[in-house]
Design brief:
The protein is mainly beta. 5% of the residues lie in helices and 46% in strands. The longest helix has 12 residues.
């Protein structure tokens, strides 16, 4: 008998423990200018984003953010600027589904036109899963010819860049141009943000367990206590969810990581977590995708046993943690 096992990980492992680079690998030569001016106008503004890129050219994190985190730096690779390019300013912005994310934007920085190479800029920009990189450009040409930003590479079948002219505002807009066979030489480094305080855990936050502080965590070796209230029988095979309430003894993050267990298979479920202040409680909801629900219902119909095993973890602001395992059985079993 083949037993299908869906591995269940703690919610704390949802984000990688290391920084992830996504966007371009920045290994190709910057041989193409983008966001060109149109004489007699001396200035052009554009927003650029990589829509598609051959796998050999994108960074190991791909083109979309895999987890919530914080962009702590971004990089562009530039080549020699044309003699008629007087200046280029850039700023990173985040997109999701091709639409601008409100407020997710950095300040403008100049591109060092006299120093071709890879340029790195610090940042602190929270990003959610499936976030995309966008780059706002402001290019200044001269009266003698066209100016452009020398930060792209061209090659047949390489990829496609979407371009908005003029650059995006806060509202969504249709892409103006599709630049085929083009690689935007842009990447970003994303660090995990365990406490979701908007600071990268590896280089910006010295207390990854407490969103109230970025300095070292307060010294504390006392394990947190907590109470878990829940109905031991719940109709989760019909509703697709089970719930419980957790009340910690102090300011803490609480996690519910769960799996559906049957005699022949273990199914990973959708976990939940929350930060809870002292004296308060949080309702956590475990969600069952369709396949585990069908498998559990079929098991009960055949006289078997199915139940949710839920692993509760409470982590206080100094990183101390306490665990507890509970079991929830379906109504009618």
């Amino acid at each position: 008998m083949v037993i299908a096992i869906a591995v269940v990980t703690m919610a704390t492992a949802a984000a990688s423990a290391t920084a992830i680079k996504f966007g371009s690998k920045l290994r190709d030569a910057a041989d193409t200018g983008i966001c060109a001016t149109t004489p007699p106008s001396l200035e052009a503004t554009c927003t650029e984003t990589q829509l598609m890129l051959t796998p050999a050219r994108d960074a190991y994190g791909g083109l979309l953010a895999e987890h919530h985190g914080v962009i702590t730096s971004w990089q562009v690779a530039s080549g020699p600027a044309s003699p008629t390019t007087a200046g280029v300013r850039m700023r990173l912005r985040l997109l999701r589904g091709g639409k601008p994310v409100a407020g997710a934007i950095t300040a403008y920085v100049p591109l060092p036109l006299s120093e071709p190479g890879i340029h790195r800029f610090p940042a602190r920009l929270p990003i959610e899963r499936d976030g995309e990189l966008g780059l706002d450009l402001s290019v200044l040409g001269s009266a003698l010819g066209v100016g452009s930003a020398p930060i792209a590479h061209s090659e047949p079948g390489l990829g496609e860049v979407g371009e908005w002219v003029p650059s995006l505002a806060e509202r969504p807009a249709a892409i103006t141009n599709y630049r085929r066979d083009t690689e935007l030489l842009l990447s970003a480094l994303v660090e995990p943000d365990r406490d979701r305080d908007g600071y990268g855990d590896l280089s910006q936050d010295r207390c990854t367990y407490d969103p109230r502080r970025q300095s070292p965590c307060l010294p504390d070796r006392v394990l947190p206590r907590f109470e878990a209230a829940y109905a031991p029988r719940q109709n989760f095979l019909r509703t697709g969810k089970a719930s419980l309430t957790v009340k910690p003894s102090e300011f803490s993050e609480v996690f519910a990581s769960a799996q559906l267990e049957t005699p022949t298979a273990t199914w990973g479920l959708r976990n939940d977590s929350a930060w809870v202040r002292e004296g308060a409680s949080a309702k956590l909801v475990i969600k069952l995708p369709p396949r585990p629900r069908r498998a559990g219902s079929a098991t009960l119909a055949n006289g078997g046993r199915a139940y949710i095993r839920c692993f509760l973890t409470v982590i206080d602001a100094s990183g101390n943690r306490r665990h507890k395992t509970i079991r929830i059985i379906p109504t009618g079993s």
